[in-house]
Each structure stands twice: as C-alpha cells, then as structure tokens.
C-alpha cells in the first residue's frame, strides 16, 4: 500500500506493509519438528583442563617442547591464560606451584601419578636425565611435564600412589599419596623436607626422595588430609584438625615456640591446641589457620601488622595465636597469606584484605592494619547476576586472586612477569577478570607464574 507524508511544501511517498490475521499467525508460529537438536562437540573428554600463564623461561608453564624455542626472547613470558597441551592428553587432578616450577597430579593407565616441569636445580622434581642412560646428564630445567617416579614398596599399587595432596615451596616439593605415605623432594637446608639437616649436602643431581610413613607423623588413629608449604617450611593438616610442622623458623613460621630450624616434624599447640583446624595457608613466612567455627589463627612474620595491629605488637610470632583483628567481619570461610598481606573470605562472600602491598583498593592504598572489604561488583556481582559471590581466595607472594560462583577468576597485585594473566605486565590495583575458557576450580599461585585447574563449560 502506498501512502504520502507531507513535509513542509513537499509531499513524499511512504510504503506500508499490511498483514492479514492468517499471515500474522504463520509468521509467529514455528514448526517444532524442524528444529534440530544441538549437541555441542566436546574436543576434550577429560574432566579437567589446565591453563597457565606468567614467567616461562624457567619452564614452569610446561608449554614448550623445543629447547631452542624455549630460549628465544619472545617466549620469555605468557601474558594470557594458555591451554596446557599436557592436560589435553592426561587427566590432571591437582596442581601445585613452587618458585619457578610446577607439579601435576595425574591419573594414567601406565601407573605414573606425578609429573613436574620448571626449575630442578635442587632436584625438587626428582632426578631427571637426558642422553645415554649409562652416562646421564641431569636436567636443571624441564620445559615440558615429565614423570617424577615415587619409590614404591612391595605391594603398593597404582591406586596407592595416587596423589591425595601436594604443595611446593621455594625449592622443595611435598606429596601425600592416597595410602598416606609422605614423599619429600628437593632442598632440605632448613629441614623443610622433614629429615635431618646434613651440612653441605648437595641437592643438585640428587636422586634422593625421602619417604615418611603417615603414622610416624600423626600416629595410627589420625591421617594427613593436606599439606601446605611456605617459602622454606612445611605444614601438615590432619583429619582431627591437628597441625604438624618442620623447616625454617627464623620468623616463627613453624609455630613450635622458637625461632630455630627443625628437621623433625612436630605437633604444634598454642591457641590451636584444642581447636579443629580445617584450613592452612602460607606462601612465604606468614601463616594463617582457620578452625571449623570460622575463627582465624596466625603465626610467623607480622612485620606489616598481618597478625596483630596493636601498638606494641611483636613482628615475629612463634606460637599459634587467635587473631583479634578479624573479629567482627563475620564467619570466615577461607583465608590466604601472602608475603606482606593477608586475605579473608566471610560467609557473605565478602573479600577482606590487610597488610602491605597492592590490596585491591587502588593505587593510593598500600597499607592498612584493619581488614577492609572489597566491593562485590569487583567480582562480577551486578543487577543481572545478583547472586554471584566469591567462593574461594588465594595468593602468591606478591599477587592475589578470587574465584566467584560462576567459576570466574579475578586477579590483582604485582605483575612484573605477567602472572596476573591480563595481557600485560603492568601492576593491577583492582580485581580484574582473567580470560579463561573454563570454570575455575583451583588456582596455584607461584612467585612469578599461575596455574588454573578448570572444568569445561559443557
């Protein structure tokens, strides 16, 4: 139909379209029998996938298969989360990040349960060789995940050797297997491997993997559920909520009531003696612990008021102490301790930070002795996703991260090596979402690299 519209002295034609009632119905209705069912193609059948980013020169990211390429200048850093090829071919169940190296717990048909890549200068990834087996040359840098063979006793099965928990420090690795056996590898200068300190011991090119029976640590009636490593100390958490430690204690981080190094794994007391601890965290020399009621305890380095904000507070605390500064911020569900700052997550999903560093409040706030909460919109909550909340937190020595209920990872802090995964190496002063193609379930924060264990969206 043609109609006209008068504009000033001019008359312009205008086309209009009319529909009959029957035509309208035919346009609106759909033949549902012709709608195809769509099933997304899943390229990776494994339950988990791994993304890595940060400093690559050490081999910690495990991305390279060519030594020549690994040494090229442009491959020094990976600024964006990148899918680890090794995870396409293997079922990875857990990850741990040390200072320049990474360990992977795997399930494979050949019985291998532990792999590693990165720095191996102290044999923290085992005795790795290349060339002629009769004249081996030890590898100080491993650029692609390689099997770490744990010594077995007669009768131990592949199932027994599956990894229950593992953690990595500056130059040591601790693994707890499903049958409760503890294996420690790497540097033991401070007793962090849970064995006697040997003067002038040589750790490079060492084939020693120390084995400890679970019962020798916590007795027959208890069992180890997780292990946590600081810079040069190790902590074991048991099913009954007890904490056992060893290693460097110069800042009181072993919690043994002194400032000595300790090669003997010892049960610690203080304010946690009658508590059931459910979470331990330490990335350097400060330790936080959480009990089942949501109370926070701490020991170790407190130079920036991480553990005590009173006027005459001690800067090194050698016995576990109930923290007063976290009172009044709600029931705590998760904690994390960095090099000079701490984090807490309460039951409302609010993230609190305090101490010294890039705390997430912008470039002008670098220190606070009182826990301050970061606004929920910084972690994905908005009018369209009002139920989104933070479910877990963690940190490295210089950076922090939080995972929300949608499986998104937000990161902030120092970024010199691109380990925030934001596409650059500038420091990030507010939480910012990392672009990862999967739902994040666990993050391992190294000193200069980050590893994320994810589940696919489909």
TrEMBL record:
GO CC term, one of those recorded: mitochondrial inner membrane
Domain RCC1-like: 221-455
InterPro entries for this protein: Mitochondrial_GEF_domain, RCC1-like_dom, RCC1/BLIP-II, Reg_chr_condens
GO molecular function: guanyl-nucleotide exchange factor activity; rRNA binding
UniProt keyword annotation of Hydrolase present: no
RCC repeat extents: 48-108, 112-179, 180-240, 294-348, 349-406, 407-456
Highest taxon in the source lineage: Eukaryota
UniProt record, GO biological process: positive regulation of mitochondrial translation
Keywords assigned: Repeat
SUPFAM superfamilies: RCC1/BLIP-II
Annotated PANTHER family: RCC1-LIKE G EXCHANGING FACTOR-LIKE PROTEIN
Protein name: GL18631
Recorded name of the encoding gene: Dper\GL18631
């Amino acid at each position: 139909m043609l109609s006209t519209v008068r504009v000033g002295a001019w008359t312009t034609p205008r086309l209009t379209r009319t529909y009959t009632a029957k035509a309208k119905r035919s346009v609106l209705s759909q033949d549902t029998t012709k709608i195809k069912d769509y099933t997304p193609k899943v390229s990776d059948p494994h339950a988990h996938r791994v993304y890595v980013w940060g400093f690559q020169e050490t081999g910690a990211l495990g991305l390279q298969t060519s030594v020549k390429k690994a040494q090229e200048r442009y491959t020094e850093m990976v600024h964006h989360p990148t899918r680890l090829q090794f995870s396409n071919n293997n079922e990875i169940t857990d990850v741990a990040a040390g200072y320049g190296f990474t360990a992977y717990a795997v399930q494979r048909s050949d019985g291998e349960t532990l792999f590693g890549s990165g720095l191996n200068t102290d044999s923290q990834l085992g005795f790795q060789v290349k060339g002629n087996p009769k004249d081996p040359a030890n590898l100080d840098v491993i650029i692609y995940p390689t099997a770490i063979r744990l010594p077995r006793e007669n009768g131990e099965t592949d199932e027994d050797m599956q990894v229950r928990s593992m953690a990595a420090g500056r130059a040591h690795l601790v693994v707890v297997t499903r049958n409760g056996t503890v294996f420690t590898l790497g540097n033991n200068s401070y007793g962090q491997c849970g064995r006697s300190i040997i003067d002038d011991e040589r750790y490079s090119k060492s084939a020693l993997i120390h084995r400890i029976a679970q019962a020798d640590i916590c007795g027959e009636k208890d069992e180890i559920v997780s292990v946590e490593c600081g810079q040069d100390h190790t902590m074991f958490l048991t099913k009954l909520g007890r904490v056992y430690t060893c290693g460097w204690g110069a800042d009181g981080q072993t919690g043994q009531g002194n400032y000595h190094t300790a090669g003997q794994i010892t049960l610690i007391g203080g304010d946690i003696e009658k508590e059931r601890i459910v979470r331990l965290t330490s990335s350097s020399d400060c330790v936080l612990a959480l009990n089942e009621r949501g109370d926070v305890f701490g020991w170790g380095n407190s130079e920036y008021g991480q553990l005590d904000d009173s006027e005459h507070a001690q800067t090194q605390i050698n016995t576990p102490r109930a923290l007063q500064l976290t009172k009044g911020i709600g029931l705590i569900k998760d904690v994390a301790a960095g090099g000079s700052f701490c984090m807490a997550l309460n039951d409302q999903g609010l993230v609190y930070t305090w101490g010294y560093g890039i705390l997430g409040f912008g470039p002008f706030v670098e220190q606070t002795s009182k826990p301050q909460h970061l606004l929920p919109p910084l972690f994905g909550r908005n009018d369209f996703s009002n139920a989104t909340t933070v479910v877990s937190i963690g940190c490295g020595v210089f950076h922090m991260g939080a995972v929300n209920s949608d499986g998104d990872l937000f990161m902030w802090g120092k970024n010199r090596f691109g380990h925030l995964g934001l596409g650059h190496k500038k420091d990030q002063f507010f939480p910012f979402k990392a672009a990862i193609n999967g739902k994040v379930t666990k993050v391992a924060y190294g000193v200069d690299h980050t590893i994320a264990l994810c589940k696919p969206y489909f």
